[in-house]
TrEMBL record:
Gene3D superfamilies the record matches: 1.10.8.60, 3.40.50.2300, Homeodomain-like, P-loop containing nucleotide triphosphate hydrolases
PANTHER family the UniProt entry points to: TRANSCRIPTIONAL REGULATORY PROTEIN, TRANSCRIPTIONAL REGULATORY PROTEIN GLRR
Ranges for domain Sigma-54 factor interaction: 162-391
Basic and acidic residues bias: start-end ranges: 1-16
Stated name of the protein: Two-component system response regulator GlrR
A Pfam cross-reference name: AAA_lid_14
Coiled coil residues, start to end: none
Domain Response regulatory residues, every copy: 30-144
Gene (name only): glrR
Disordered, as annotated region: 1-21
Organism, scientific name: Billgrantia aerodenitrificans
Length: 471
């Protein structure tokens, strides 16, 4: 009997110790509590706050979604039976908005089929009312153990360089945090200048490889042989000018992450060699007969439509599926207009610190002009505009006229080589199609291309020959 009592005492002390530890650990955790019974909502909210949680309450599913849009909690507790939107419908809406956010369903009508159905769909836990205090706290602690509190500075350090309050960007970041812990290959897509390398670096910083190197290379910036040498390295004498052995970026990134930017521009022969390296987890430097094992995670990015490139025979399907285990799509800046003032204030503070400390920010009219601009160059263009404004301003508050001037200068600025080439290609194709009145055979002959290549060029620029034929 004495041994049993001692055992029970030790168990109780252990539970109290765990509760104290867990309570301290979860003090910063943010709980979104949803119930259409106001009195129960208030009572349960007080109980959670007494444990140290930060609580936001909502009296309906739609209200909960609005509050979720304004600020992402660490966990959601929702009643199952609610008039306007029940708990399962709310759960499904939350999963579309913030995949992976843990949801616990509470119900006075609990049954085994309901619980099985809920957990099969991905609900973290299912508790019946009246809710047992210890079971509730245990379920919350278990959920938070799988999802670190997003409101703490320490847990947010990995994404500190990405400034946003856009729900769409928050969804991307939530997915990025989820994939960071594994070693799966991630393909980041989105328009040029939208911050793909920034997101890749954030994934690296949130991963177990964070203490190892993050190495980036632009696959569209180098000719094929030089790119192959940069990736795999080369042996002395491998080619003219190879006067010594050279370690490639795979070896430089050993244990860490290799980021392949603009992967869509990689030549086909090199795609084959890189695919083999990824499958075999070893590389062979140019001119060497020895293979070298490598331990590297691959993140890649492109602004191109790789599905279209595969259809045109410009990108290997097997290589695509090797890279695209998870796809994260970054929105264009015009689709996250609420972030423009936020980014502009941050960028102007940085630029002012470097160049003109007296500059304090943008006038309200200037911020409004920034927020309503189209931003075809995305965040990269915004950075340029802010830098120009800080360089040219003579007053602490940057006026609207200076922003308008900087935007006009950006519109007339020299395009990148790739953009210029794409623009030339399209205008040339339009011209020859007009000359030949949409006759592809004649147009291809003028262009010095075979019909197959010419059709690929037309598809790349979304040009339809029939639109150039006479009525």
């Amino acid at each position: 009997m004495e041994a049993a009592r001692l055992s029970d005492t030790r168990k109780s002390e252990a539970r109290r110790s765990a509760a104290r530890t867990s309570g301290a650990k979860s003090a910063a955790a943010h709980v979104l509590l949803v119930d259409d019974d106001v009195s129960l909502l208030r009572l349960l909210g007080m109980r959670l706050e007494s444990r140290g949680y930060r609580v936001t309450t909502a009296e309906s599913g739609p209200e909960a979604l609005r509050k979720l849009e304004a600020e992402r909690p660490d966990i959601v507790l929702s009643d199952l039976r609610m008039d306007e939107m029940d708990g399962m419908a709310l759960f499904q809406a939350i999963q579309r908005e913030v995949p992976g956010l843990p949801v616990i369903i509470l119900t006075a009508h609990g049954s085994i089929p309901d619980a099985v159905n809920a957990t099969q769909q991905g609900v973290f836990s299912f508790l019946t009312k009246p809710v047992d205090r210890d079971k509730l706290f245990s379920a919350i602690d278990e959920a938070l153990a799988h999802t670190p509190a997003g409101s703490s500075a320490e847990s947010d350090a990995w994404r500190a360089s990405i400034i946003t309050r856009s729900p769409e960007m928050e969804r991307v970041l939530e997915q990025a945090r989820m994939v960071a812990s594994s070693d799966v290959s991630v393909l980041i897509t989105g328009p040029s200048g939208s911050g793909k390398e920034l997101l890749a670096r954030a994934i690296h910083d949130a991963s177990p490889r964070a203490s190892k190197p993050f190495v980036a290379i632009n696959c569209g910036a180098l000719p094929e042989q030089l790119l192959e040498s940069e990736l795999f390295g080369h042996a002395k004498g491998a080619f003219t000018g190879a006067v010594s052995d050279h370690k490639g970026l795979f070896q430089a990134a050993e244990g860490g992450t290799l980021f392949l930017d603009e992967i869509g521009d990689m030549p086909l022969p090199l795609q084959v060699k890189l695919l083999r390296a990824l499958q075999e987890r070893q590389i062979r430097p140019l001119g060497s007969t020895q293979s070298i094992p490598v331990n590297v995670r691959i993140l890649s990015a492109t602004h191109r439509d790789l599905s279209q490139a595969m259809h045109q025979g410009e990108f290997r399907e097997d290589f695509f599926y090797r890279l695209n285990v998870v796809n994260l799509k970054l929105p264009a800046l015009k689709d996250r207009a609420e972030d423009v003032p936020l980014l502009a204030r941050h960028l102007v503070a940085q630029a002012a610190e470097r160049h003109k400390p007296f500059v304090k920010g943008f006038s309200p009219e200037a911020l409004n002009l920034l927020a309503t601009s189209a931003w075809p160059g995305n965040v990269r263009q915004l950075v340029n505009v802010v830098e120009q404004c800080v360089a040219l301003t003579r007053s602490p508050m940057i006026p609207e006229a200076l922003v308008a001037q900087a935007l006009a200068a950006e519109d007339s600025a020299l395009p990148t080589f790739n953009d210029a080439r794409a623009g030339f290609e399209r205008s040339y194709l339009v011209k020859v199609l007009k000359i030949t009145e949409g006759n592809v055979t004649q147009a291809a002959r003028i262009a010095g291309r075979n019909r197959t290549d010419f059709y690929k060029l037309l598809a790349r620029h979304e040009l339809e020959p029939s639109t150039f034929k006479p009525e």
